[in-house]
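Subject: Sanity check before I submit

Could someone independently write out the structure tokens for this chain? I want to compare against mine line by line before I put it in a report. The sequence has 399 residues.
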Amino acid sequence: MAITGQQVIQVGLPNESANSDSLYTAFTKANVNFQTLFACASPYNTFTAGEGVNVVASNNIVTITNTGVTNILAGTGVTVSSANGNVTISANAGGGNGGGTVTSVGVNPVSNTRLTVTGSPVVSAGNINIDLATSGVTAGSYTNPNVSIDAYGRVTSIANGSIAGTVTSVGLTPGAGIQISGGPITSNGNITVTNTGVTRVNAGSGIALSGGNGNVTISATSLGGTVTSVGVNSTTLTVSGSPVVSSGTITVNIPTNTTIALGNINTGNVVANGDVRANTGDVSGNTITAIERVTSTGSFVLSGSEDLLNGAAASLTETATYFSTAAAETGTLAAGTAGLVKTFMMVADGGDMVITVTDPGWKIGATGTMTFDTVGDACTLQYIANKWFCIGNNGVVFA
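---
Independent answer below. Compare away.
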């Protein structure tokens, strides 16, 4: 906004009075100008925006903007009239457009156990809140639950249940020609079933096959031969059912007593229901078991042995156990098997060797001891009737 009444000071050429106001006139005009400025200046230097108003000052320019309602338009059932800033809004009566007499709106649940309502009724303005009522069930996770549900689909009760059934282990029992591995299953796993019997039948010379899976018929085809009798003869084996002249079975067995007249038997284990006898050769093995007798016209050699260390258990698979003590030492002997023979001997004496024996035959009790205190102390034990019995002794003290 321009300010009127400005006093212009005349200024001529330098150092000349022509066309120039005197100092008095010039200062008087300046004083008038300042008086005019101060008289027209606003006493306000700050503008504060009220509600619905925005004030922005930039480059000595103040901009005031209405951020509130700038125009009111009448919608359905409403009449708007304005004059000098006052706006009147009226509702049109009748026709379903607000002409009713409702003064309060509320919500009532049919059952307070199913719905909860707050903020009701509304008589002027407000919100009515509707929520599901709690059913008394505790929120959480349940294991094998037992659940009750009402007609409205709500869970009204729930509790942990137990797994039905009492099966704790699943296994398979194999029949003939079947092998089972991996069972029984007590938690999870796989059971493998393997056919260990006949998996395929091929027809050889003179044989005819019928059938595929399941039952297979094996028939002999006519080869045009002239054999009328088949027999087996042996001077060392037991033969029965010989000869076969039409159909039948020839049985060949090893005799109860077998005598090796010449030669050797060398194998891992030798087992006989009768006698084991060697007249000229040798019979040797890790284990020789005979229900009757073991006889030899030569020597009888027990070659298996071990050096028993301090605190160790005597072997039940080696016949002889020997030891050399550097100080007082100990050892143990577990229960054996029927007929088992064990020998013990001290070969060097640096201190006593005490061996604790399970199932001793020389005392009543679960354990006993054998004490070796001199070089040459030795004994022989045999396990009979679930007991170790001493059948030979040289200087060993039994307790």
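---
OP: Matches mine. For the report I'm noting this point. The chain has a mean pLDDT of 81.
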